[in-house]
Design goal:
The protein is α/β, with parallel strands linked by helices. The protein has one domain: Rossmann fold (3-Layer(aba) Sandwich). It has 9 helices and 7 strands; from the N terminus they run H-E-H-E-H-E-H-E-H-E-H-E-H-H-H-E. A 7-stranded parallel β-sheet has the order 3-2-1-4-5-6-7, sandwiched between helices. Helix 2 links the parallel strand 1 and strand 2. Helix 4 runs parallel beside helix 5 and helix 5 runs parallel beside helix 6. The longest helix is centred in the middle third of the chain and has 29 residues. About 45% of the residues are buried.
Amino acid sequence: MNPAESDPARVAVVTGGANGLGRASALRLARDGCTIAIWDCDRAAAERTAQEIRAGGAAASARQVDVASLDDLQAAHRAALDEHGAVDILVNAAAIIGVDASVLTTPLDEWREVLAVNLTGTYLASRLVAGGMAARGWGRIVNFTSHARRGVPALTPYAVSKAGVVPLTRAFALEFSARGVLVNAVCPGRALTGMVLSRVPAEVVRNPPVAIGRYAHPDEVAEVVAFLASERNTYVSGGIVPVDGGG
């Protein structure tokens, strides 16, 4: 039996679900039968992804949300509860990479914005939904960290924000796993998304320094997200799961 045929219908919120790895995750969860709520700052792209999901036969909605804004997140959460009754799955894919700059010259506003979206946004969205998941005895939260957490020249705010997702993931897992809420993070290497293709030279894309010999397709990352977010995952929590082709 296809696992999607045996799983109860779940409501999945995907932040940053309009593009890139968030979009791939939203589409993959829809194929598992989830109702998808896309929260993204790009309203038009979010609606296009929602329309694609609906065309495939699943339910989907799109809402313009700045994940760095608690007001935006609270309004989106209330709307999801009003429309669907619950949020069962949260995928925190919303992220910005920021501008290239020396650690000494990174503008303070840039530092604050990148951490606000990538780290604080992940925390706020998780905090909003985790209590309801625990009260129902079932939930899945999947965050996105990155190999950049080890440190990346010229992208210090991004690296710091992604490093912070690791202890944040483990903190939520320690607090909520025994109450049925499994919390994990995926750690992609580079995947063939617009964000990567716009920054990486074509020659490096063709011949990447990756053991498997190529960069990931977004669908390959989304497949891991879908497992971690599903009924099939019964014992993985607090994990930082590499999806990096061997590094």
